[in-house]
């Protein structure tokens, strides 16, 4: 089993998902088989300016462990300072540096996938953050910025390792592809063959079969599950079953209803009340799919004005 520091890493990891992988979502995924998860991505500048929102992102409890952290930023000195601040607030087993986020807001700051165009800055960030903290530092990459270049991305991964990266997470698309188009398994395979630290593949892991394909075609040490877990937390256990040669256990409508309601109750318990119904509607839509009248059910969920009204909609369509 691969390790990051002293932590044994399972084959499936719940990815850090900005705006989505909050405590309620992580708890639901853990109940259905996820072992390792991440806090939502933390912006370096938010830490340096002591943003109140950062504290909300770092909410957790004793059931939500082990829990890694991911930091995003474009300046090495600032990232090192922010890493120290972050570790005064939480105690993750390792800290990941995001060089993969394709969102324009982050790109304009010179962070995320923009670092693929500025690899020397990326190496400096890895080196300075690794020197500033006493836990392992890892890096999240994409396979390129606007084109696929196996040799170049392998060199970037190798240099990240040389500068202190204890593992590499890699999304199998370029920045320009965003979240659509084919996954380049070959690029992930080349990275795995180039570095001597663990490599974890990401992108398009929507089913046990696709997780198995990622592992088989790349030789990577594990997979990161991201959007595939939306409304399908059972994916973690089913990937494990697939890899063990056991039958897949798809949830019944009754099981889906039970988990959805528990997810909504966690939101009610743990999230700030300001826009809790908006978050509940978003989450409900994740689960209301792949059954007769699912589109009608989603429309009714979107129209719900309160938690009781949303529960009534769920009762009506997931009877």
Automatic annotation (TrEMBL):
UniProt-recorded name of the protein: tRNA-dihydrouridine synthase
Lineage top rank: taxon: Bacteria
Cofactor requirement: FMN
Annotated FMN binding sites: 70, 140, 171, 226-227
Top-level EC class as recorded in UniProt: oxidoreductase
Residue stretches making up the DUS-like FMN-binding domain: 13-306
Its EC number(s): 1.3.1.-
Xref: Pfam families: Dus
Keywords: Flavoprotein, FMN, NADP, Nucleotide-binding, Oxidoreductase, RNA-binding, tRNA processing, tRNA-binding
GO molecular function, one term: tRNA binding
């Amino acid at each position: 089993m691969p390790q990051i520091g002293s932590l044994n890493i399972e084959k499936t990891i719940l990815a850090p998902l900005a705006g989505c992988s909050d405590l309620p979502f992580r708890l639901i995924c853990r109940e259905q088989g996820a072992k390792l998860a991440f806090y939502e991505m933390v912006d370096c500048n938010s830490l340096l300016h002591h943003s109140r929102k950062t504290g909300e992102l770092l909410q957790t409890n004793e059931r939500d462990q082990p829990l890694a952290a991911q930091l995003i930023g474009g300046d090495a000195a600032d990232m090192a300072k922010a890493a120290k601040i972050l570790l005064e607030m939480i105690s993750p087993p390792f800290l990941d540096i995001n060089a993969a986020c394709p969102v324009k807001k982050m790109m304009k700051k010179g962070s995320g996938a923009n670092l693929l165009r500025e690899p020397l800055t990326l190496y400096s960030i890895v080196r300075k953050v690794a020197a500033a903290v006493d836990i392992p530092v890892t890096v999240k990459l994409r396979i390129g910025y606007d084109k696929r270049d196996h040799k170049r991305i392998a060199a970037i991964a190798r240099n990240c390792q040389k500068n202190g990266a204890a593992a590499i997470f890699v999304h199998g698309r370029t920045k320009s592809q965003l979240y659509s188009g084919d996954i380049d398994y070959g690029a992930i395979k080349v990275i795995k063959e180039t570095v001597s630290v663990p490599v974890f593949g990401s992108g398009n892991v929507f089913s046990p079969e696709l997780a198995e394909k990622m592992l088989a075609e790349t030789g990577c040490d594990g997979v990161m599950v991201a959007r595939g877990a939306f409304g399908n937390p059972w994916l973690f256990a089913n990937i494990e079953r697939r890899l063990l040669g056991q039958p897949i256990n798809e949830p019944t409508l009754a099981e889906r209803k039970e988990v959805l309601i528990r997810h909504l109750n966690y939101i009610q318990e743990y999230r700030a009340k300001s826009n809790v119904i908006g978050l509940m509607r978003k989450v409900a839509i994740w689960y209301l799919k792949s059954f007769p009248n699912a589109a009608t059910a989603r429309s009714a969920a979107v129209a719900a004005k309160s938690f009781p009204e949303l529960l009534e909609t769920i009762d009506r369509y997931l009877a």
